Amino acid sequence: MSAIELAPGVHWIGALDPDLxxxxxxxxxxxxxxYNAYCVRxxxxxxxxxxxxxxxxxxxxxxxxxxxxxxxxxxxVLNHLEPDHTGALPELMRRAPQARLYISIKAQxxxxxxxxSDELAYTPVNTGDSVSLGDRTLRFLHTPFLxxxxxxxxxxxxxxxxxxxxxxxCHYCDPRLFNDKVGDFRFSFEYYYQHIMRPFREHVxxxxxxxxxxxxxxxxxxxxPILRDAPARYVHRYRxxxxxxxxxxxxDHAKTLVIFYLSSYGNTARMAQAVRDGAxxxxxxxxxxxxxxxxxxxxxxxxxxxxxGIVFGSPTINGDAVKPVWDLLSSLTMVNVRDKFGAxxxxxxxxGEAVSMLEDRMRGLKMRVPVKGVRVxxxxxxxxxxxxxxxxxxxxxxxxxQVVRKVITMEELNRSQAHA
Amino acid sequence: MPKANVTFEDIGVTVTVPAxxxxxxxxxxxxxxxxxxxxxxxxxxxxxxxxxGMENMSERSVLEDKVLQENMAGRQHRxxxxxxxxGGEVVVRPG
Lengths: 420, 95
Ligand code: FES
Ligand SMILES: [Fe+2]
Ligand SMILES: [Fe+2]
Hints:
The complex is a heterodimer.
Chain A: E1 4-7, E2 10-12, E3 15-17, E4 22-23, E5 27-28, E6 33-35, E7 38-42, E8 45-49, H1 57-67, E9 73-77, H2 83-86, H3 89-95, E10 100-104, H4 108-115, E11 122-125, E12 130-132, E13 137-142, E14 152-156, E15 161-165, H5 186-197, H6 201-211, E16 218-221, H7 231-241, E17 255-261, H8 267-280, E18 285-291, H9 297-306, E19 309-313, H10 323-331, E20 341-348, H11 353-364, E21 374-377, H12 382-399, E22 406-409, H13 410-419
Parallel strand pairs in A: 8-9, 9-10, 10-11, 15-16, 17-18, 17-19, 19-20, 20-21
Antiparallel strand pairs in A: 1-2, 2-7, 3-6, 4-5, 7-8, 12-13, 13-14, 14-15
Helix pairs in contact in A: 6-7, 8-12, 9-10
Chain B: E1 3-8, E2 13-18, H1 23-30, E3 47-52, H2 62-70, E4 77-79, E5 88-94
Parallel strand pairs in B: 1-5
Antiparallel strand pairs in B: 1-2, 3-4, 3-5
The structure holds FE2/S2 (inorganic) cluster and fe (ii) ion (2 copies).
One fe (ii) ion (FE2) is lined by residues 82, 84-85, 166, 222-223 of chain A.
């Protein structure tokens, strides 16, 4: 088990996991993965950056021992605290008790949960903080939410190496390790971005503002190939990926509202038309209506990413909203929908739970649900269609910020709940 | 009974409530964009921002204060499931 040199005094000491097919339950990999950890030697001590998953700790320690003695380790950096990179940490700290731990300011709460120990000495660091290894300096970049709240990158200034954590990483296992040596991993790189980083698009842009000026000569991520050949290409690719997937021609002139519905007898469909008509009465709103039966989840997710408001119309069947609506909603974790406007409506036979279930789910996604949904028993009457139009108009007014402020009392609120 | 006015900025609704009402009792019913987890002041899921009127809110309990600090909340943050409205005007928003 030998360490692999990236630059003088900088070694890869990670572990390979070629048989892994599913990561964190939700992520697939056809090529396994690697847990990359690194060792940096300076004139006044050694730093270890990240560790590996617990069941691969043996490989990690063997490689580490090939390049350093435990008592030389002065610094341990964790770029984020996820178990696939911190699994060997407790044991490492036992073997190198003199080493000081450096974690991001946002990692402090999580650390206790991870190590189950309170009297652990560590130094929380933020962008601009650094630690010296004598002739070499590690600088920290706070890059929160990529993809954990506590994520940071570590910059080895003198060597121009960025230890980027999960950023620029992918699940792809190839013992040849370097991007100019391994097989074609482009698919894995893109897949990893889409599933791990995409929901944090705005944070990716913030991180790129910090990373681009450094112009790293080598990027050493926490999974997958080490990017030594043309690393700038991967930084550039992240920039491209971080702009929304669809260009919105309505641009700044109009707010966009997308209505998704599903209808078994045409009742919810008629409601959808009325909601659209109502919303279109308001200037500056571009409304689109989609029947979920006629499309795939993927493109709809792209539409949602660019929309300002989303409305779901679903009948209540067996006390629940229908599956295609849930399928789309559960895929919305792939994009950032926080603070978008959401609303729901639908027709029902006996009971109309779907509407409030959908509203709850949207609130759970941290969307704003300002207008109470409309529910109609079976076939909508003209009066009920008028209600749907008013609901659409109300939503559009909220979207364009022309909302009429309402004042109500607690009693009225309790009463409206009892009827719902 | 003394009253207070709580305005949920994200949805543009003001509710007149009896003094002493917990924010969560109101926010849940009006449908403001606040989410809840434990409802017992431990998880910080319901963290929200008091835009104005902090002087009209109950003092932070030891527990609320600790949880807010651990989540690096600012001085204007409160837990909806813990904080009570004591009177006057309060304006809140999610986040
Ligand atoms: S809901 Fe958990 S702290 Fe309020
Ligand atoms: Fe991770
Ligand atoms: Fe990871």
